[in-house]
Amino acid sequence: MSLMLNVKDLCFNYGNLPVFEGLSFNVEESELCGLFGPNGCGKTTLFKCCLKFLKFHRGSVTMDGIDISGHRIENMAKLVAYVPQEHKPPFPYLVKEVVLMGRTPHLRSVFGIRRKDKERALEALDVLDIVHLADQPYNQLSGGQRQMVLMARAIAQDTKIMLLDEPTSALDFSNQIRIWDIMRRLAKEGITILACSHDPNHVSWFCNKVVVMNRNGIVAEGSPHQVITEPILDEIYHRGICAVRNLGETRMVMPRNVAERKLDEISVENRIGIQYAMPIEGAGIR
Amino acid sequence: MVENMKRYSILERLGYERIEGFSEERKIITLISLFALMIITATISISRGVYDISVIDVYMIVLAHLSPYGDVSTINHLHNTIVWDLRVPRILLAITVGIALATAGAIFQGCFRNPLVEPYILGVSSGAAFGASLGIVFYQFFLSVQVSAFIFGSVAVALTYILARTRDETPIVTLILAGVIIGSVFSALVSIMKYISDDSALRGIVFWLMGGFYFASWKDVYLVTPIVVASFLVLWFLGWKLNILSMGDEEARTLGVNPEKYKLILVSIATLITSLAVSTVGIIAWVGLMMPHAARLILGPDNRFVIPAAAMLGGMYLIVCDTMARTLTSAEIPVGIITSILGAPYLFYLLRTRGRAIFG
């Protein structure tokens, strides 16, 4: 296992407004890493720094062993794919054309779109099971469908690393599960994925590793079982928002007032036998 | 069916790789048909004119010039002048200007991610108008109206760009606003020129502003056409990059296309050909705005097809408008008037019927 993404002592501010200071974490090859944190803590900004959309003021980002400050835009695109949160172009490109755009870093010239590239684009549509959308205008789809198309584009881009900014935010429940399954499969195939999400259950169920951040920086980093715990959730949100319970082998995060809701003087958790999840000793709290 | 198979195989022999679900043959065939249609339009236009020359004579003259064995000396001298020295360069110039404006329009709309942008948005037309009016009023100081229009058109765009550039970036909104500012400054300067000019110069300025091909000559064709055609080919070649750019700056970076670099290249070339066209024939409205839309209606938004289709349509549209301009009445009508009168209802129709599909 080698280090695929290494963020070291990263600092960024918009003018006088500091966003984060001294962020450090790494993601290893073939890992599905979840980035978890409250609104406005700088997750998207962190992604944009890693992709060189924004110039950070201190620190370094290393991808696949190479410092990105020396990378040209063309080479970055061969190394890392990005799925943005929301995006709508003014022109009605067809879905298959948008996915084909993912092949751009591998094209030699303008008319160099070969059969292989088109096949790869169609394959990516097939992976997400959205072949039926291929001939529809992309900018007239629903937000969730657009998110799936952008995911397909990232797959068609054939990169070692994928950064996904809330890839499931606009999706229905079954599609959320589908996207997480696809990400797990891609990670197993050797792609390194960093995805941010607002759902603690998703990151704890599907990721190999979780990085938790808030406005002050990285709060915890480690396996989901070590990191998604009540003390850490209390630290990043207001105290007493979340309760962490075990349902059999599976960990559940739920609102505390739901977990402790009483019906006929017996709390829900006692009725159905949910156990209180104890934080593991010495969990990755910093 | 057999014929279809044969046609595909020709395309494939030229290096086109076919794949189920991604077929582009229809678009390629449409492009070829548009090109043929443009040639046919030009051929018909040559035979039209106020001076009555029979259709056969017209084509005999053209053939005599084009074929290596043709003998020009046997032709009626007056007919030869009218057809070969007036009509042919005029039609060629109309095609050139149509290609220039329509291509530039497609480029500007893609780069600025706004389907309502036209090539004059950065102030080329107002700058060129000022240059032209300077050349007309102070003709003793300026070599030619055309050169002065070209210089001031380019100066206006350069000023716009400098005004909009902050911290190594040129945000689109700032650029468009800067274009509006520079445009209005130069319009005011044109008004000053109109105010201080005498009657004949004023007439000259007004005619120039309305645009027209009255003075088209072989010299204009030799000067403008090669540059426009070469620029068109470069821009066409960058069509796929323009697709990526039209998705937005961050998207372009994600996909490995440097937005600052390619936007500068594309906008510079588009401005060059717009400036050339405007300084040669004056301000012709609507072509740059409408033709890319028409191309998108026919072929979809992929700029690899929109750019050539818009260029062909632009050439065709200007031939038709200019033919009307010189044949409808015994006096000439400025072509800018005809392009607008024909163009406005068309855009209105687009807005009402396909508005949502095109304008998002």
What does this structure look like?
The complex is a heterodimer of chains A (286) and B (360). Chain A has 286 residues and is of the alpha/beta class. Chain A folds into two domains: 3-223, Rossmann fold, CATH 3.40.50; 229-286, no CATH class. Chain A is built from eleven helices and 15 strands. In chain A, α6 links the parallel β7 (161-165) and β8 (192-197). In chain A, α4 (115-127) packs across α5 (143-156). By secondary structure, chain B is mainly alpha-helical. Chain B has one domain: ABC transporter involved in vitamin B12 uptake, BtuC (Orthogonal Bundle). Chain B contains 15 helices and no strands. Chain B has helices at residues 2-13, 25-46, 55-66, 77-111, 124-137, 145-164, 172-196, 199-210, 218-237, 239-245, 249-254, 259-281, 287-299, 303-327, 335-359. Residues 1-6 of chain B have low confidence and may be disordered. At the A-B interface, α2, α3 and α4 of A face α10, α11 and α15 of B.
Describe what is shown at a glance.
The complex is a heterodimer of chains A (286) and B (360). In chain A, 32% of the residues lie in helices and 29% in strands.
Helix and strand sequence of chain A: EEEHEEHEHHHEHEHEEHHEEHEEHE
Total helix count of chain A?
A: 11
The helix/strand series of chain B, from N terminus to C terminus, equals HHHHHHHHHHHHHHH
* Secondary-structure-derived class of chain A: alpha/beta
**In whole angstroms, how far apart are the ends of chain B?**
38 Å
How much strand content do the residues of chain A show? 25-35%
Number of strands of chain B: 0
The greatest inter-chain interface is formed by: A-B, 46 and 36 residues
CATH topology of chain B: ABC transporter involved in vitamin B12 uptake, BtuC
Which stretches of chain B are low in confidence, meaning pLDDT under 50 for 5 or more residues running? 1-6
What general form of chain B does the structure show? globular
How large is the radius of gyration of chain B? 22 Å
Kindly report the oligomeric state of this protein.
Answer: heterodimer
Number of helices of chain B: 15
According to DSSP, the number of beta strands of chain A is 15
CATH architectural designation of chain B: Orthogonal Bundle
Mean of residue pLDDT values of chain A: 84
CATH topology call of the largest domain in chain A: Rossmann fold
Q: How are the strands of the biggest sheet of chain A laid out side by side?
A: 6-7-8-3-9-10
